[in-house]
Amino acid sequence: xxxxxxxxxxxxxxxxxxxxxxxxxxxxxxxxxxxxxxxxxxxxxxxxxxxxxxxxxxxxxxxxxxxxxxxxxxxxxxxxxxxxxxxxxxxxxxxxxxxxxxxxxxxxxxxxxxxxxxxxxxxxxxxxxxxxxxxxxxxxxxxxxxxxxxxxxxxxxxxxxxxxxxxxxxxxxxxxxxxxxxxxxxxxxxxxxxxxxxxxxxxxxxxxxxxxxxxxxxxxxxxxxxxxxxxxx
Length: 233
Known about the structure:
233 residues, alpha+beta, 3 helices, single chain, 11 strands
């Protein structure tokens, strides 16, 4: 009877964590890794959840702590990080990593003109072993043409307040991009809440494709400096 009760408690606890990843908000558990989960505010089983972990066994490249992305049945919104041309649903970085996680958000219909639903990205943080202490977790959102929409979303604050980042409907063949970076708290001016930019103007203002590439190179150089080695070597 004790084993049955313990199993039920564990099952319910896992369910609570899964819901937290969809709707946002802090939820402490016994998971040791510090983990950021990114999902969607629409309760759709086909929509993906990206997990970014900082853990002592993590690697900057593809390693044993990572999980490959397996697309769900359409219609769906695919959300994954990209490391060395590999799509990941779990991206495990070293405990003290400051490298940027480049993620893609892409829509797929089911061939019958049924499209996935999306309104906003949501965030859930479990700071497990404390790797996120004293660190800002920032999000830069880019449009389908790689134009910058809004920089420096405060993802810790969004997780704490159940805040979101608004998205338009992401249909077949349309992708948006979210860069997630980790920086010392004194280094950056943050956007604590979702941008007031109207969805109809998404992508209309911001960087050109060349400007986007330059910004990525600048962020990459900062990552290399903090990590103490040259990623391009």
